[in-house]
Amino acid sequence: MATHSVEDRTIQTVTLSLFRFGPIPARIWAFAQMGFARLAMRRLPELSFWKLLGSGMGEGFTPIPNTAVYAILCVWSDEAAAARGLRAPVFDRYARHAVEICTLTLHPLTSRGRWSGVSPFRPLSERPGPGPLAALTRATVRPGNLLRFWRRVPDISRRIGDNTDVLLKIGVGEVPFLHQVTFSIWPDAASMARFARTSGPHAAAIEAVRAGDWFAEELYARFAVADAHGVWQGRPAAEVLS
Fold this sequence. Notes:
Layout: E1 13-20, H1 24-42, E2 47-56, E3 65-76, H2 79-85, H3 89-97, E4 100-113, E5 133-141, H4 146-162, E6 168-173, E7 179-186, H5 189-197, H6 201-212, E8 215-232, E9 235-236, H7 237-240
Antiparallel strand pairs: 1-3, 1-4, 2-3, 2-6, 4-8, 5-7, 5-8, 6-7, 8-9
Helix pairs in contact: 1-3, 4-6
């Protein structure tokens, strides 16, 4: 996999760890960690922002929970802090219960908006080199707009699934229906821009959101994909992103 090279190791580092769980007891354990793991995450000294996330079924995201897949998003001061933090017992417990683990290391390039009232990502001042880019969109949907929002989702999800440029895609969130996160990885900025701007369900949804003030809070961020470790969907993570 071609990855972005960043010489300054003091830049902010974001990790997204994906976990797939197999048997029902493991899935029940993972669901329980959405509450129980919070104390352990709060105790990590070098962690400036974090979220425990569930996932949805299908391409992109859907309101139907996927009980097999969970994620942990972390923001660290730099790569060294990330390496130390990912060795913490809480991640080890997840690893012992999971059948697949994939950890993506990301460096923020752009970010606008807020998440839980804060701006968690500190973008790089430099332009990214060649290599894959990740896009993250997070929104809190206003309760009065839930039905209109979710009516748009099937077409958008299908379009993401049909796009051969997408290297990895997943829909995650903190609270079903209300708090939604879409995360996708693209081979370059051009392919990402084509999807976002081309006419179709995605462009129409963006226009509707802006016109109707559907979201109480939103955040849009792009990242350089610095590294990928583990296995996802039966393949080494590096192959998934190549």
